[in-house]
Amino acid sequence: MSLVLLIEQVLNGLQFGVMLFLMAAGLTLIFGVMGLINLAHGSFYMIGAFAAAATAAATGSFLLALAASLVAAAVAGAIVEMTVIRRLYNRDHLDQVLATFALILIFSEGTRWLFGSFPLFLDIPDYLAGPISLPFGIQYPQYRLAIIAVGLVVAGGLFALIAKTRIGIQIRAGESDREMIAALGVDISNLYTFVFALGAALAGIAGALIGAIQSVQVGMGEPVLILAFVVIVIGGIGSIKGALLGALLVGLTDTLAGFLLPNAFGLVMDPAAASAVGSSLASMSIYVLMAGVLLFRPTGLFGSS
Amino acid sequence: MRKETILNACVLLGLLAVPLWALSVDEPFIITLATKAVIFAIAGVGLNFALGLGGLVSLGHAAFFGIGGYTMGILASHAQNYAPLMEWPLVIEGTKSMPVIWLFAVLFSSLAALVIGALSLRTSGVYFIMITLAFGQMLFFFMISWPAYGGEDGLVIYVRNGFPGLNTLDPIQFFGICFAILCIVLFLVSRMARSSFGLALSGARQNEERMQAVGMVPYRLYLIAFTISGAITGLSGALFADLNRFVSPTMFSWQTSGEIMIFIILGGTGRLFGPVVGAAVFILLEHMLGGLSEFWHVYLGAILLGVVLFARGGLIHLVAGREVAHD
Fold first, then answer.
1. Which residues of chain A from 128 to 187 reach within 8 Å of chain B, CB to CB?
2. Where do the domains of chain B lie, and which CATH numbers do they carry?
3. How many percent of chain A have pLDDT more than 90?
4. Domain range for A194
5. How far apart (Å, rounded) are the C-alpha atoms in residues B100 and B104?
């Protein structure tokens, strides 16, 4: 275990965290503004990845693929909001959970129907392939570094959108009092569709970016969705700042625990047992983190009770 | 008699009649399907105790289902390999006896429910949903990465566990065992729902402040309900493992939690027989739609969406009308 390896793992954790933020930001916005728990958010991640893979296969352009992922996920989000989600705002959480669970079944099997069960592959573009040299002699994949950059830019854009623009003001107003802003003449149902489509688009681009590192397949969204839930529970539901902090915490914890725990147990056990015990504990580490945060702050780090 | 009581009786008789008919025409597969429906019904009744009565929307009940399943898997695999579970300080052997396995399944799943509930119930609403989901996933990933009991591949038990005086390998006899357990569980749950504890729990669901004002502690009521609920679902997990003679981390997956919840919603939330109707309909749909198309989950999703959006209160509501508070 060397310092270089540790720095690489920290960068991996950051990259993972930034991607989780793109997922969690949409979820937490949708919950904050509309009070809706959306299990189908992982489906938009999958839709983005499939749209990107299909576009890249047809045109060969990675940038077009990214654009396609944004558009496809946003359009899917807007359609779902207008047909189904809209009817759920006044329902209790149980109905929301079930209806969006039903949407997952429809989206997952529908995608399997269209694209088949075999995973698709999305290639990293040539100009981002290969490693880049960082200080201290670290070789790090350019593409992963680009993901961190894209993620941070999108996060910055999202904060600017919420803090500086007119629509951001409406979103924040919608979080605190939806009747009042409707009375002030803001078309609340258009605003809701916009927020939902925005969240879906963020998930879609995350799916496309990750799709180039992993394979693009049905069911890829759900594990990320659950991690995104952990993120917003840690950060406090409805808080974008909390989602960013939570995403980085979860990303780093998950990556570093997977790297450090087997090594740490290796000091006291034989290597095979250490890697078994270490990796099974590492897979639980973020949930332990979440339980720990909730013990001290039941509404998350930035949540209001 | 009320419509719902008549309907409930019909459901139980129907569940009993189908496998008996299957026995007479020699269709063991249908008996197995009915057994599966009964076991899922038990899992649903367990979740419904927390969800319907206590209003606790747990999306992590797969954890207890899985713990029940793995209790069976671990005890039986040690017994079939003749390797004791523990040799020091005292020797603990595995077992192939169903009643002993059930006892431990209930014990371990209720302990897990007590711990998970104690942590999760510090929160409420949407936080509670996500936290129970996360705890379920935690155990799922733990089972996948824990190599001692099969890891991702799961555990195969070659011979179904035994029950004194019965041949459990005979499908209809195993069905009988599961059906008897379902009836006992339904009886106990209906008694508990009408006990002072059940009434207080129901009151806490409807209005927490009022229950506090009359001196109840909602947290304690919820925790007891969650623990009992986990225990029942754990028992069904042990039965499910015995039905398949196989346990795998899939039992812990969040789709399992979702499916258990689907049973309740299809049938009707908070109704005693809701999960029974729901599980039976689910198995029926799975069998029929699965024959129609490989992608039957699309239709299941559409039906579920339709029930949630347009048929609130589930199938029992459609047939028997509104819930009546007292008999």
1. none
2. 3-320 (1.10.3470)
3. 30
4. 11-220
5. 6
